[in-house]
Design a protein that fits this description.
Its EC number is 3.6.1.41. By secondary structure, this protein is mainly alpha-helical. The chain has one domain: Hypothetical protein af1432, CATH 1.10.3210. The chain is built from eleven helices and no strands. α3 packs across α7 and α9 runs antiparallel to α10. The radius of gyration is 17 Å and the shape is globular. Bound molecules: fe (ii) ion (2 copies). One fe (ii) ion binds next to α5. The site of one fe (ii) ion has 7 residues, from α5.
Length: about 200
């Protein structure tokens, strides 16, 4: 499928506002891919499709999670906000014929992240945080970090998500913690030096 056909397919699935967000993610993902050396075409396709199932009804998503063997079932115990990413990867494979596993993984992990993310996954996940339409406290700091260090910027983004969820007394999906930990270099303090 060509870029225009994919955009058309996405446009039929999401709200106008979310479509504009998607275009922002596409533009940002291409730019980050260029900057950090990821595959631009794959970044573009993953960005176009990343929120394909964002507005699907909960029961429809639950059904796909329950009936797709490789989707982790523990997702059902966490915020429904996480579901559209895993479900989206399956649906774009099934309905749009997207077979590239790297693209599918970038869609699948764009919300939660995961341990040892690929360059493409990082680019799409970070683009989702900082696209021009995003407005939340700290987004400008994140945009600046994105110009300097991909891992540090993404760790900041995921850290913000974790803090946001903690402040709302929500559960944290373990992959998000693992994703952040794998992006932050361990700083071991030498106890003796501190004495
Ligand atoms: Fe999303
Ligand atoms: Fe998004």
């Amino acid at each position: 499928m060509k870029r225009e056909q994919l955009l058309e397919a996405v446009r039929g699935q999401i709200t106008k506002h979310r479509y504009e967000h998607t275009l922002g993610v596409v533009e940002t993902a291409i730019r980050l891919a260029e900057k950090y050396g990821a595959d631009k075409e794959k970044a573009e396709t993953a960005a176009i499709l990343h929120d394909y199932c964002k507005f699907w009804p909960e029961d429809k998503m639950r059904n796909i999670i329950e009936n797709t063997p490789h989707i982790p079932k523990d997702l059902l115990e966490y915020d429904t906000e996480l579901w559209h990413a895993h479900v989206g990867a399956e649906v774009v494979r099934r309905d749009l014929g997207i077979e590239d596993e790297e693209i599918l993984d970038a869609i699948r992990y764009h919300t939660s992240g995961r341990e040892n993310m690929t360059l493409l996954e990082k680019v799409v996940c970070l683009a989702d945080y900082i696209e021009p339409g995003r407005q939340f406290p700290g987004v400008d700091e994140l945009r600046t970090a994105a110009e300097e260090d991909l891992d540090r910027a993404l760790a900041k983004g995921l850290g913000g998500t974790i803090t946001f969820l903690v402040n709302r007394e929500k559960r944290i999906y373990p992959l998000t913690v693992l994703a952040r930990n794998s992006l932050v270099k361990p700083k071991m303090k030498n106890v003796k030096e501190e004495e």
